[in-house]
Amino acid sequence: MHRKIIHIDMDAFYASVEQRDFPEYRGKPIVVGGPPQGRGVVATASYEARKFGVRSAMPSKKALELCPEALFVFPRFDVYKEVSAKIREIFRRYTDIIEPLSLDEAYLDVTEDKKGIGSALEIAGEIRQAIKEELQLTASAGVSVNKFVAKIASDIQKPDGLTFIGPSRIEAFMEQLPVEKFFGVGKVTAGKMKQMGLHTGGDLKKLSEEELVRHFGKTGRFYYKIVRGIDEREVQPSREIKSISIEDTFARDLAEPADLLRELDRQAEKLSGRLEKRMLKGKTLTLKLKFTDFKQVTRSRSLPEPFCDALTIRKVGADLLAGADLQGKAIRLLGLGISNFNQPDAARPVKRAANQLDLFL
């Protein structure tokens, strides 16, 4: 029996919430993120801004160059979290097998749905309609028999689209898919593939599994299966938290030890608060530094007993900073993270949006 998988992806989520809540933003090119005067980063952009080439993770300065009329809006993550929770409530009317990927994106397994509807396509339609009527937002959905194809399908008719790719269509669909759309294929890997004459899934399909592994490592096995429509990954309702971190990119590079220690102090307090909120304790602290030239170093230290307070985090962090041998180099980014959890409470859903939050702290 085929599984019934839905991938829901909210349309320009942060920007759409802003346009919903503030009528003066509607129909305007909105950029949610840090200000262009500093080192702000685009969290998301409305579709009016995307027409100019503005994309997520782009420096705000670049976004302003591409779209001089853009309105920059500082993110309201508390509001986005509240809206996201309401979206999840809608999901739970149909299934409890939900795998959140971020505040605005999730997989749902509706092989056996709570309402006994039976049709994943119908369920996806009802979910989209509920989101539109109850929250005044739009979502796009992809429906298929596995996660990979459902995710790709949700992007085909964005915004406000619904796409179904059934079992009989999957293999032909995968053959025409550009290689850069495949899981794990970034710019470097895509460039390597194209140098090898591999431009589509059909090109990848010509290679044996052994050849794919030789050229692309373990991920080659995934490529071999997925171009044949095989994706056995299950929708995971929860994931184990492996680390919690704080990192900040500074408005100006810091070189003075006193300035760096002051930032370290602040981060230690925040990190301690996050650990306390999630009732977690970890034994390993990692310091992350990025220099003006974008070179990056990390230093870690493990203790026999878990870190449980800001003072210990600050002291060990300062020791790691002192041992990093900065040689007077200016620091662009500083971060602290705790890992090596060994308590049952560590198995909690991951909130990936925390990574996005860090861009604006």
TrEMBL record:
Origin superkingdom: Bacteria
Annotated positions binding Mg(2+): D9, D104
Enzyme class: transferase
Keyword Ribosomal protein among record annotations: no
Catalytic activity from the UniProt record: DNA(n) + a 2'-deoxyribonucleoside 5'-triphosphate = DNA(n+1) + diphosphate
GO molecular function terms noted in the UniProt entry: damaged DNA binding; DNA-directed DNA polymerase activity; magnesium ion binding
Cofactor details (free text): Binds 2 magnesium ions per subunit.
Occurrences of domain UmuC (ranges): 5-186
Keywords of the record: Cytoplasm, DNA damage, DNA repair, DNA replication, DNA-binding, DNA-directed DNA polymerase, Magnesium, Metal-binding, Mutator protein, Nucleotidyltransferase, Transferase
Enzyme Commission number: 2.7.7.7
A cellular-component GO term for this protein: cytosol
InterPro entries xrefs: DNA/RNA_pol_sf, DNA_pol_Y-fam_lit_finger_sf, DNA_pol_Y-fam_little_finger, DNA_polymerase-Y, DNApol_IV, IMS_HHH_1, Rev_trsase/Diguanyl_cyclase, UmuC
Cofactor dependency: Mg(2+)
Gene3D superfamilies assigned to the protein according to its UniProt record, in alphabetical order: 3.30.70.270, 3.40.1170.60, 5' to 3' exonuclease, C-terminal subdomain, DNA polymerase, Y-family, little finger domain
GO annotation (BP), single: error-prone translesion synthesis
Pfam families reported in the protein's UniProt record: IMS, IMS_C, IMS_HHH_1
Biological function: Poorly processive, error-prone DNA polymerase involved in untargeted mutagenesis. Copies undamaged DNA at stalled replication forks, which arise in vivo from mismatched or misaligned primer ends. These misaligned primers can be extended by PolIV. Exhibits no 3'-5' exonuclease (proofreading) activity. May be involved in translesional synthesis, in conjunction with the beta clamp from PolIII.
Family: Belongs to the DNA polymerase type-Y family.
HAMAP family: DNApol_IV
Protein name in UniProt: DNA polymerase IV
Native source organism of the sequence: Anseongella ginsenosidimutans
